[in-house]
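dumping this here so i dont lose it again. seq + smiles for zinc ion
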Amino acid sequence: MPRKKQPRRCGCGCGQMTQGGEFCPGHDAKVLSAIISRVGGVANLRLLVEQTTERPLIIDIKS
Ligand SMILES: [Zn+2]
């Protein structure tokens, strides 16, 4: 049985309701770019994530 999609407040903080996902369409990308901007780039974000999770990120370029 498919789970019923429950509208909820968008995770970006805009106050709109979603169609059942975490974000309204495109708003997750806005959050991601704000995060990347705050930490000063993707490389810094990677460092932050690796330090926080205490695990190196393994990047598979081929897939
Ligand atoms: Zn939003």
